[in-house]
Amino acid sequence: MYFDGVCTMCNAAVDFVIRRDRAHVFRFALLQGETARAQLGIVEGQAFGTLVLVDGGTRLERSAAVLRVADRLGWPWRALAVFWILPARWRDAVYDFVAARRFRWFGRKDSCRLPSPAERARFLP
Description:
Blueprint: E1 2-3, H1 8-20, E2 29-30, H2 34-40, E3 52-55, E4 58-61, H3 62-73, H4 88-106
Parallel strand pairs: 1-2
Antiparallel strand pairs: 3-4
């Protein structure tokens, strides 16, 4: 799960997933990090406006990534799968609306999130 390390909302989402991912299915990496540059082709200085999930070799972004994460977290979050019935452009329009306002609503961090010692094994460089 690749996320924007300076986005307060994104960091809160990562904390949310870590607390609920009891099976330790997810690994996390900053979109600003080495792994994202190598695996996703992220360019230094690129703006980040989306969550990226690589699941079984499939790259998911925006609402599809959020829904897959919810599915992998199990019940009750799996219930969000009902939103798969909506067209992707509708789901992504809502995602984009929130993403465009995330810094205004939730703020921005001065630096990227650093994992705690207990979380370190779950984070990629």
